[in-house]
Amino acid sequence: MIIEEWMIKSVSEVNSYVKRMISQDENLKYLLIKGEISNFKQGAGGHLYFSLKDERSLISVVMFKEYAKTLTFTPKDGDEVVMLATLDVYEARGTYQLYAKSMDLKGIGAKMVELEELKKKLAAEGLFSKPKRSITRYPKAIGIITALNSAAIKDLLINIKRRFPVVDTYIFPSSVQGENAPKELVKAFMKSQEYDLDTLIIGRGGGASEDLSAFNDEALVRAVYTSKMPVIAAVGHEIDYTLLDYVADVRVSTPTAAAEKATPDRKEIEQDLDEYLQEMKEGIKDQLGTMKEDLKDLEEELNDALANKINQLKLIIKGKKEQLLALNPKGILSRGYSITLNKDGKPISSKDDVNSGDIIKTIVSDGEIKSRVEDE
């Protein structure tokens, strides 16, 4: 067998290939896995390192500090837990391990399994795949569903008014945790649909995972799916996702972020106005330039039309003048003709217009001639 140089792989290439294959497997991105904790250690940086085992196998687990600080219990060897994790390869050592995102004791973990099943069910029905709507840039009215007298409502109102004080805000109060919270949230949502809102914010301040359970309610998710206006979900913090987050049009981690997403910043408005004003000035300038050019063209056309009209009138006047000259008696006299008037000063056109002895007057071009009528 002949071995070519290109056929030989390095250790790094093999580990990198394995990591890439595992990373591309969708079935390994989000695993719900149960087992018993063993070899538990907490690192100096706050990260957790342990193994998860059952009766036949075990696997290494890492839980980084940002996720570890959300735990509601202190892990120890022997704990039966259910965790949400991603499987990946640690290339430097060529080992694969779980990277835990959340973890609960087994009894609590059962709720996680139930929640994951509900998530799959709703996703299969298409509730999470509806096209996301954009948030109105300059809203007239914003609705808020959260608890009254909470830090969340104060935060939302302060930041909305600070950023965009002209907007109207409507509050639809509801408890956000506890046994009655899901029904109250649905009731508040249905009430909000009776108003002409541009944006609806649903949320609360941060809390432990179990405190956010009301926002995983199936009835609430189905109701929000039918919302007439875009919905911003502001539940929990960055690492906590609820089913409401998946059905909402936008998901943010804090009430402050929701206020910022729902409103334009005053500075942005001023900048937009400056840009619009500049565009208007340039547009008016262009229009004035075009109007000036059109005015010049019209002036030239008017002058040409006026000159043509004057020439036409001159020709008409000349023709009329010639006609008048032709009809002028003096013009006739200048050509050798004369006019004879009887004693009454009327032109003589017949011999019957005079009598013997009448003094008549003959008008020629250079004067008058008087004469007396004699019998033949």
CATH class category name of the largest domain: Alpha Beta
List the secondary-structure elements in sequence, H or E: HEEEHEEHEHEHEHEHEHHHEEE
Tell me the Rg in angstroms: 51 Å
Main sheet overview: 5 strands, mixed, barrel
- For this structure, the CATH topology of the largest domain is Rossmann fold
Distance between the termini: 165 Å
Structural class based on helices, strands and sheet pairing: alpha/beta
Describe this structure in words.
With 376 residues, the protein is of the alpha/beta class. The protein folds into 4 domains: 11-124, Nucleic acid-binding proteins (OB fold (Dihydrolipoamide Acetyltransferase, E2P), Beta Barrel); 141-264, 3-Layer(aba) Sandwich (Rossmann fold); 268-322; 331-372, no CATH class. Helix content is 40%, strand content 23%. It has helices at residues 11-23, 65-68, 106-124, 151-163, 181-192, 218-225, 243-247, 255-262, 266-327, 329-333, and strands at 31-42, 48-53, 58-63, 80-90, 95-105, 141-146, 168-173, 199-203, 231-234, 250-252, 339-341, 359-364, 367-372. The protein has a 5-stranded mixed beta barrel. A 5-stranded parallel β-sheet has the order 7-6-8-9-10. Helix 7 links the parallel strand 9 and strand 10 (250-252). It is rod-shaped, with a radius of gyration of 51 Å.
